[in-house]
């Protein structure tokens, strides 16, 4: 066993091999990861955001495991057509027309909204966010290589196409043969036959600008004025920033039969090397059991959810709580449940931060924490099993809460528990440290508490109530009396 393999912890389901595999990076100690980014022609919905959230959890897990991660996520601001057929409209150009703006203005606007949404959800920004329109040169160079190797043909007045029959093992990501994939795409009418196309699976590398139409975005090329195909963008940008071979390539399951299959054909056709080692794909999100769509009125953006009074944390939690390879049925009931879960964690941390009583280290408590911590980390490293990881966290919270009620948790133990939860939060990304800060009760409140205790001992309940009211109104803390003494929390 190599040292690298011994240190590797994360197992991930690789679509290419159709099994869970230990992630052993190409270069020791670092992981290079590419994620297909948004096409910036409209608002991203929460289904899109689910994808970026699980990819964020993947990156955070790798960093937690000690890898230096280089994360690239592109911006598709040109070339993504409304149909997969290479014959539809460019989504960005079409959206621009509808909104009476230029394609440049539209893509800039929706790109910035996307960046805001990812920041809202505490998704770590990628190290590089390359825009397709700024990498036309690299795409044309890649097309030239493919042309020299005999992979391309021209369809007059249409574009430069990739002849998929020329690439050995075309479609290997799908597990289907060339013929099977052609039949599958035709059967599902995923791709209609463009006149002049030799195979259903062939696709445009470069589209010529239509005659008599002035596009906002078009470039000169040795083949004629036009714009790149969507697939060539990802091949060119991923290889520019991560090298011809890199570790992890992520996307949604819908990318498997066409977009990623074509990225592989382009990249490996041009370089003769394996493109990505691990292919990781996430499932869709449905709302109330139905595909999200504007016409059904179940289409939500991050902003829509926040405007309904939910916090970013609750939304992030709801998006991340299901396994990334299962279909997520998003409901407002689930969002309410996420609210309950967050509140439970918050209360736990606040209560712990308020424990001031000194005492010796409690070995039993530390054991509960350490074993739950280990099982949490084990679960996320097992193909990002978030449902199991969260169950471990809540199992620990229940056990420790009982110890708190018994008064068995002292100040040092409390700090130990909080620290452990905050370390796990490096994976969860819920900014839980904010609850720990909230929990710290000011000195003045502690003094008032002492006075209230005295008043209660003297059975002066009227005074005790007045102090309780003052603590709430002036300092924003609520006091609850339990059989083990008072519990104080932020209102
Ligand atoms: Zn892509």
Evaluate the radius of gyration: 27 Å
- CATH architecture title of the largest domain: 3-Layer(aba) Sandwich
Q: Enter the CATH topology name of the largest domain.
A: Rossmann fold
Strands across the major sheet, in which order?
A: 4-3-9-10
Strand content: 5-15%
Overall number of domains: 3
> What ligands does this structure carry?
zinc ion
Instruction: Please describe the biggest sheet, giving its number of strands, its sense, and whether it closes into a barrel.
Output: 4 strands, parallel
- N-C termini distance: 55 Å
Description:
- With 491 residues, this protein is α/β, with parallel strands linked by helices.
- It folds into three domains: 289 residues, HUPs (Rossmann fold), CATH 3.40.50.620; 109 residues, Anticodon-binding domain of a subclass of class I aminoacyl-tRNA synthetases (Four Helix Bundle (Hemerythrin (Met), subunit A)); 48 residues, no CATH class.
- The strands form five sheets. The chain has a four-stranded parallel beta sheet with strand order 4-3-9-10, sandwiched between helices.
- The radius of gyration is 27 Å and the shape is elongated.
- 42% of the residues are buried.
- The site of zinc ion has 3 residues, from loops.
